[in-house]
Write a structure and sequence with these properties.
The chain is α+β, with helices and mostly antiparallel strands and 140 residues long. It is 38% helix and 29% strand. A hairpin with a 2-residue loop joins strand 3 and strand 4. It is globular. The N and C termini lie far apart (30 Å). The model has no long low-confidence stretch (mean pLDDT 95). It comes from Aquipluma nitroreducens. This is DUF3788 family protein.
């Protein structure tokens, strides 16, 4: 995994800074933000600096529930969705690619949750982010 690059707590991420780091993959960042705004008007977003990871992370929330985390890495960004154990049958029955289902099955558990992460570099990656977002939104 690429290290996260936004490590200065005094430099708040801006669109210009993000795009300068992720380059041509900024198109997927823009598509994600647009998709969320068009399809889930009740989702809020925030950038926060986390001392434990010593980096800025983007968090999308519905009410108080975190839907996903995003970290900026060199040339792209990584989206992580955390799912509880109750999500396993939903994920297994979903149209997600087998490698993502396997990632969930094999992920380390943290307090009854496991993560599925994607480094977004292609239209297929973006489509899988949308699939994961829709799964997360439907799960209570």
């Amino acid at each position: 995994m690429e290290p996260i690059v936004l490590t200065d707590p005094n430099v708040q991420p801006t669109e210009e800074l993000i795009f300068s780091i992720i380059g041509e993959n900024s198109v997927y960042w823009e598509q994600l933000i647009e998709y969320v705004y068009e399809n889930h008007f009740d989702i809020t977003e925030e950038w926060r600096f986390y001392n434990d990871g010593k980096s800025w992370l983007y968090r999308a929330l519905r009410k108080k529930k975190t839907l996903y985390w995003a970290g900026i890495i060199k040339d792209t960004f990584r989206i992580s969705f955390w799912f509880g154990d109750k999500a396993e049958p939903v994920i297994e029955a979903s149209i997600l690619p087998e490698n993502m289902k396997e990632q969930f099955r094999n992920a380390k558990r943290y307090a009854h949750s496991r993560a599925v992460s994607i480094e977004v570099r292609s239209p297929e990656d973006f489509e899988n982010v949308v699939k994961l977002l829709e799964l997360k939104v439907k799960l209570k």
